[in-house]
Amino acid sequence: MAHIPLIRIGSSKNTLLHRDKLIQYKNSNDVLDKNLLKKQVHVKQGWGKKYHDRIVQKNKLTTRTRIDLLKDEDTEFYEIGMFVNDGIVFQGNLRSPAAGVITGMLHIHGRWCIVIANDNTVASGSWWPNTPEKIIRAQTIALRLHVPVIYLVDCSGLFLPEQARSFPGARGAGHIFKKNSELSAYGIPQIAGVFGDCIAGGGYMPIISDKVYMTENAYMVIAGGALIKGAKGQEVTSHSIGNSSVHVEISGCADECVSDDEALLLAIRKDIHALPTSAISYYQNKQTPMVPHYDVNDLAEIVPSDPRIAYDAMQLLARLCDDSLFWEILPEKGQEVICGVGRLNGLPVGMIINRQGLICDSARQNKKCPGGILYRDGIAKMSLFSRACNSDGLPIIWFQDIAGFDIGPEAERQGLLGYGSNLIYTNSMNDTPMFTVLLRKASGAGYYAMEGMPYDPVIQLSTTMARQSVMDGRTLAIATYRTKLDEQFRIKTTDPKERAIIEKGMKKIEEQIDADMDPYAAASRMDTDEIISICSLRSWLTVFVEMSYQSIGHRRIKNPRIWSLHDIAALWKN
User: Fold this and answer.
1) Based on the domain organization, do 231 and 340 belong to the same domain?
2) CA–CA separation, 345 and 446 (whole Å)
3) pLDDT, tens digit (0-9, with 9 covering 90-100), for 86-144
4) I need a labelling partner for 365 at 20 to 30 A (CA). Which of 177, 222, 379, 424 fits?
5) Are residues 145 and 95 in the same domain?
6) 390 and 502 share one domain
């Protein structure tokens, strides 16, 4: 029973599609990927060369250089929230690339850590609208996965012209300090390095950390020199009242002073090295990590960006799982979704994905129905599988390519509302780590039911193809003007002026919804955590799964001999 009955899935891309289609799909995805790269480069520039040069003139490192030196050599930094505030213009005609704070996952001495770093090239690391929410999001990821948090502090406090949008509220700047406290209470290591300005909220953020380092040029103050002069008439500088000597030798608010940025980063790396080693190799249970049998780069050629065109979802899994091995659970039931177990870097993980094209609906005597829609048996299968993975301690990855729930008389008679509620309850109560990937369409209540962002996945990714909405622009335009249309959704009126008004109105609605569905608009609003190329999907998911297994003892991970999944599979076979 301890053996996981994995079988090879997938086939060569050349047997799936004609060469012309492979090229067509790849060209379409390449355009999306080039746009992604262009936007990433723009964000990484912060406020540009002028501000980079200012940092260098102060004998300091830019924040992105600090992160590069902090992580292990030849490893990648997985940034999340890169496009927060994308396209938003604030008072003074100013923008805040990445909301002025860089967050993500990096590897230090074999351990995954969360880093939260003020971007000192954007208004001296100020907090903008959505900066606190972004910091809190990163802290929450660390809290749920029990991985260390590193703060690289270089913050001049709130961007005051926009303070009303970042200071108050349930997720305002003060909530960062509550998360500091929760992380401390759960014993999750927090290490802070103060590199320069550390004013007001920026001053509070590092204090609850287990270790606080300061460079010789850094300072931490409740209020800066200018504010003190205005309030009390005292002539002081921020550095004179809150430098490292004050806080290391007198106040005790910092633990150690180091000479410069490089020395501080080295001190943080030493602290991480002193922590318990990762449990990943323990949970691999002698399973050798393997690359997929089929190249992950095939995904750009076999998954069309047009959400109306079907593809084989099993082929996608074949290009993600170690050696393209997968164990499908209840394959004959609820065929609109695939549920099963694969390995990523030798670690078992539950996977759920929408099947596209025509499927056989087992709840309707195997009647042919369109995939990408949830029917009764598929919903029930996902609920059962989700509960079993939670019981067994397996992390779950939800791959969404969904148009929503089935509708109509048959759907109501079968009680899809109740089955959907069951799935939502299951996912809401799970404590195993769950991650969500929006592949293409993520629509309606199906987006909710399959662990969309409102149901609090640890992290939600969107590919460059992803679109999330209640319904697409064309469908909403039809619904809005339904009384003006015939049964074939054509405009009924013969009056040219009225026809022109209706056409203009429908086009405006369609364009508005399509703009709202853009993944960068979603990322700007924090409706998704990050946008990635589909070909980088395995790399990202491997990080998520490794982080889920890194810490030992804080959650239930069962030996495969006692998995509930084996019981489900055995009963189905009988």
Assistant:
1) no
2) 30
3) 999 999 899 999 999 999 999 999 999 999 999 999 988 888 999 999 999 999 999 99
4) 424
5) yes
6) no
Q: Which candidate, 560, 166, 179, places its Cα nearest to that of 343? A: 560
Q: 434: which DSSP letter?
A: E
Segment (H or E) for 469? strand 467-469
What is the pairing mode between strands 347-354 and 337-344? antiparallel
**171 and 258 housed in the same domain:** yes
- 23 in a domain, yes or no? no
Dist CA 337 CA 313 (whole Å): 9
In-domain check, residue 454? yes
Which domain does 454 fall in, by range? Answer: 287-466+528-568
pLDDT digits (tens, 9 = 90+) for 436-475: 999 999 988 899 999 999 999 999 999 999 998 776 777 7
The first and second tokens of residue 265, run together, are 């980063």
pLDDT digits (tens, 9 = 90+) for 387-397: 999 999 999 99
Q: How far is CA 213 from CA 111, 169, 199, 266, 540, in A?
A: 20, 30, 16, 11, 31
pLDDT for the residue numbered 229: 45
Mean pLDDT of the chain: 90
Alpha helices for 329-415 (secondary structure H): 376-392, 409-413
Angle of helix 261-274 relative to helix 63-70, nearest 10 degrees?
40
Q: How many structural domains compose the chain? A: 3
* Rounded distance between C-alpha atoms, residue 111 and residue 547, angstroms: 9
- Tell whether 199 and 54 lie within a shared domain: yes
> Do 83 and 138 lie in a common domain?
yes
Q: Which residues, at least 6 apart from 172, have a Cβ–Cβ distance to it below 8 Å? A: 132, 166
The pLDDT of residue 479: 78
The residue from 231, 248, 275 where one domain ends is 275
